[in-house]
Each structure stands twice: as structure tokens, then as C-alpha cells.
Design brief:
The structure is a homodimer of 256-residue chains. The first copy, chain A, has 256 residues and is α+β, with helices and mostly antiparallel strands. Chain A has helices at 3-9, 23-30, 34-46, 64-75, 79-93, 135-143, 147-154, 168-181, 223-243; strands at 20-21, 50-52, 59-61, 96-103, 106-113, 128-129, 184-187, 194-202, 208-217. Chain A has 2 domains: 3-67, Winged helix-like DNA-binding domain superfamily/Winged helix DNA-binding domain (Arc Repressor Mutant, subunit A), CATH 1.10.10; 76-243, Beta-Lactamase. The first copy, chain A, is built from 9 helices and 9 strands. Chain A has a 6-stranded antiparallel sheet. The longest helix of chain A is centred in the C-terminal third of the chain and has 21 residues, at 223-243. Chain A is globular and about 55 Å long. The interface between A and B is large, with 62 and 62 residues. Chain B binds a DNA duplex (30 and 30 nucleotides) through residues 1-3, 22-24, 32-36, 38-39, 57.
Chain lengths: 256, 256
DNA sequence: AATGGTCGGTTCATTATTTACACCAATGTT
DNA sequence: AACATTGGTGTAAATAATGAACCGACCATT
């Protein structure tokens, strides 16, 4: 595998539960020799992507990322416009709302506003959403450039729960349903007990660049709540697309 | 040079004036063969650090950065606490306030609140501040772990203006002054016409991890304004350090 | 204290990856 | 229509990545 790719894959090992690693632990987890991992970390540290806590000698994500994020936002504002929309969406539906954008092979979560109810879906910051196993992933894939669904259907489709579509034909059929209805739903295909409803976010060229979604505890989703969510989601997705400078394709219709 | 390091150096070529590049342009600017640059970009795109605009085929910073930034903030909150402090600092002084954290070899700007006056200092998002040529850099370096000033003094010191200290002995003397006074000032050492006043931000171990600064047009800085800024800065820097979970060393005193 | 385990980090010969040159088709420009 | 530049590809040559062994430091047990 390409060295740069391998090095950057190390970044994916960091999540909320594992915000920092010792050298050996990281090497073990990545299944790469620790001498190699050390050199990669040092190179990434030189760019500010990671940094080493001087006391514990542990490695964590670096401040250079914040700098890059500011630059990206300045050039291509997204999260700034997204947050108030998410807040309103969460408030209107009473459920957890989140937004994600295509980043690398999958969708990366760029914004979350949680439901205020005590039984609510928690989405950890920066969670990676697989394209085939989440409502957001389906909504994005269905309306992305045509090469995206083609590539996704050719992937090995990992089963995250018993309901995850792992057969390309099944997945293709679901994508077709999403295209017909204008929204995606995923009933416990990624997390057990979580039901997701999602709609695509469009870029300037009229193809999807991400998705807006509402996640509910699976047992709570009544037909009424579903209607409420879909209506709020349609409005929010439209605003979000326009707020980011995207264009909704002329033929795009939502048939709830 | 290490491949990973070289690839990540490409990221530093992006700034507000150049938010996206064509392949050839980027290769030219980085002075690397374009075949090599292409592979690097593809690897970084797989991690979401960059992405290619499908229409123009230009490359820009990717959405994966936003995801990583969220993770970093969740694990190590910094900018969240910084922004209100910067806003107040800018309001109290009437000048542009900015915060930066060590990222790679230098300081990366992680927050800016501009002055509201018509003649004001503009700091572009994500600007990189050289350690030897800015008030923030001096404030950070003077109070960082001892190996930092040692390394900085051994660097080649680029002259950004006529006033930039390029001689290690001069720089060492200035650092000593900063240590004695508790703050750093830099009169047009980076940008002509800009005067910076800065104080260190401390990490949990009592060593500096970044800096808080106020930048004024050089002609406007009267003795009175200087006093006002230093007093507001001292308060803001203390709050910012504590807000980020840092510890101010017991012996730290500000002698304005 | 002595033991054994793990840690972060270094070294160096072997190997596999990266590199740069030439080349291609497509798209503007003059 | 000729020309230059673009993004991208394939190749042999050269360079940089690799991983096993090793080091001293640290930490529990024994």
C-alpha cells in the first residue's frame, strides 16, 4: 500500500473513545511495525496533524488540523451554515440531527445537534458513516455522481447489524427506492435500535456531496413522527444545500 | 526527504488567496514532479484531507479535515473557549485579537476577532506565524519547553521585514526580555506597519502551547493604548489558559 | 533486589516503494 | 491550423521505507 495512505490511515484510529495512543498501542492497532509508525507520526507532527503530549509521550490529533479547518471553512463554508439548521431540525423533531460530508471513502460527520429527550441517539463527534449501511450514506450515494454508486456496489459490503444490506443487488434496489422517493431510511442497518432518515445535500453541480439526517430510537418511530421528520428534513436539506452554495437539481422531488 | 512529510507540505500551499490548485500548478509551486504530486493528492483524498472538484478538476482542502477538527475539539477543547475571550479582547482594545497554537514547526492561527475600526489589521484564516518573527511566536517560544527555544535559535532565521531579528544572539536577547516582562512585542518584524503584543497560553504542564495576541497598525500604538492592551491581554490570556485546562506557572508575573 | 514485561526510541541491511522521464489524449490559445 | 498547457499513465532506475534486533528506562511482581 502507498506509504502516505498508510500513514493517514493512522488518523482514522482516533475517535472519541481513543483520543490518544502510545506508540506501541497505535502500532499494534494499525498492525504496522512501530518503527514505521513512529516515523509516520513524526512526519505528521511536522505538519501539525498530530502532536505528542510531552508528559505522557502519547500521540493525539494536532492543532494544525484546526488551522486547516479554518482555511477550508474560509474557502468553502459549510459547517457555519449547517449548525443553526441542525439546531432547528433537532428542535422541530425532538430527535438527534446530524450532517455529514463525503470525506475519503465514506461520509464524515461535520455537525450534530442532539435531541433533548432522555432516550436519544448519541452520535460521537467525527463518526464515519459507511455509505451502504446508513441512511445518510444511502441518501448521498443515490444522488452522487454516477461513478459513486458504481464504486460502492463493487465494494465488499460489511455487515454492521443483521439488517445491513450486504448484497449488491439489495443495495442497488434500495438506492433506486431512495432516488424515487427523494429520501433514505435505514432501520437498524448500522446500529441496532437506531432508525435513520436522511436526505442529500447537493453541491454546485447538482450532485450530492453529503447528507442531512435525523436519527431516532427505532422503537419510537411512529408514522406520525416519520411524517414530521420528513417534512422538517426536506426544509432543512433545501436550506442547507442553498446555504452552502449548492444547487438542487430541477427534477428533484420528495415523495414522502 | 520523507515522502509523508513532503506530501503533507503540499497542504501548506493552500491559503486564503489560493484555496484550490490545478495539478500542474501545485506541482510547480511545490517543485515536485506532477506524477508524484498526483499520487500524493490521491492518497490524501482517500483520507479526506483534500478533494477534487469534479467540474474544474482542481484540488482543495477536504471535508475530512472538518471531521478531524471536531474530534480534536472533543478530545482537547481549545477554540470553543477561545472565541468569546477573543471577542471580548477585541472589543476592549478596539484592535484585532488572535490566538494561535503550536502546529508543526510554527504557530497556526486558530481564532481571530477583528477590530471594528476602519483602519485595522487583517489576519487571514489559518495564517502561519513564524516563531522568531512575530509577537505570538516570541511569547510562545520564551515560555515553551526548553528544547523549543534551543531549536528555534538553531534555525535559519528568515527576514520578513527589515526589523525581523535574524541573528540568534539578538533573538536570544529578545526572548530573555520576554521572559522578564511576561509579554512579547514585535514592531513590524513580520508585516510592515503591524505592531503585535502577545502573551503565552500555557498547557497543563506549565509550558507554553501557543499565544494570545493583539495586532495594531504600528502608527496607532500610543503608550496609553499599549497599557490598555497589555492589561486586557493579561486577563484574557489567564482566562484562556485556564479555559483550556492549562496551568499558569507559579513564578509567572507580568511586568508591563 | 532481582525479575520479567512493557514502554518509547534507534539502528541498519534488505527490499519494495517512490520517483522522474517520456508519452498520451483532451482542451484551450494564438 | 499550429501550438501550448492541461490532467493523467506507464516504465525502468533510484531512492526511501521497512522490520527485526537492540537499547535504556520504567513498573509491577516476586
Amino acid at each position: 500500500m502507498r506509504t502516505v495512505e498508510k500513514a493517514l490511515k493512522l488518523l482514522e484510529l482516533f475517535d472519541e473513545a481513543h483520543p490518544s495512543f502510545g506508540l506501541s498501542a497505535l502500532a499494534r492497532r494499525a498492525d504496522i511495525d512501530k518503527a514505521t509508525v513512529l516515523r509516520m507520526l513524526q512526519d505528521m507532527a511536522a505538519a501539525g496533524l498530530v502532536e505528542q503530549d510531552p508528559a505522557s509521550r502519547n500521540w493525539r490529533l494536532g492543532a494544525g488540523i484546526l488551522r486547516l479547518a479554518r482555511l477550508r471553512e474560509a474557502a468553502f463554508p459549510a459547517t457555519g451554515a449547517l449548525n443553526p439548521i441542525l439546531a432547528r431540525l433537532a428542535q422541530e423533531t425532538g430527535e438527534t440531527a446530524h450532517a455529514s460530508l463525503r470525506a475519503g471513502a465514506d461520509l464524515g460527520t461535520v455537525g450534530v445537534v442532539e435531541s433533548t429527550r432522555s432516550n436519544r441517539v448519541y452520535i460521537e463527534p467525527g463518526l464515519i458513516l459507511p455509505l451502504h449501511a446508513t441512511a445518510s450514506g444511502l441518501a448521498y450515494t443515490a444522488f452522487a455522481r454516477p461513478d459513486v454508486p458504481a464504486e460502492v456496489l463493487a465494494r465488499p459490503l460489511a455487515a454492521h447489524t443483521a439488517a445491513t444490506p450486504t448484497d449488491p443487488a439489495t443495495l442497488a434496489a434500495r438506492l433506486e427506492m431512495v432516488r424515487a422517493s427523494g429520501y433514505a431510511c435505514a432501520d437498524q442497518t448500522y446500529d441496532a435500535d437506531v432508525h435513520g432518515l436522511a436526505m442529500p445535500l447537493f453541491g454546485p453541480d447538482g450532485f450530492a456531496i453529503g447528507a442531512l439526517a435525523v436519527a431516532t430510537p427505532a422503537t419510537r418511530l411512529t408514522a406520525d413522527l416519520r411524517r414530521l421528520i420528513l417534512s422538517a428534513l426536506a426544509d432543512a436539506a433545501r436550506k442547507a444545500t442553498l446555504g452552502m452554495g449548492g444547487r438542487i437539481p430541477d427534477h428533484h422531488r420528495i415523495a414522502a
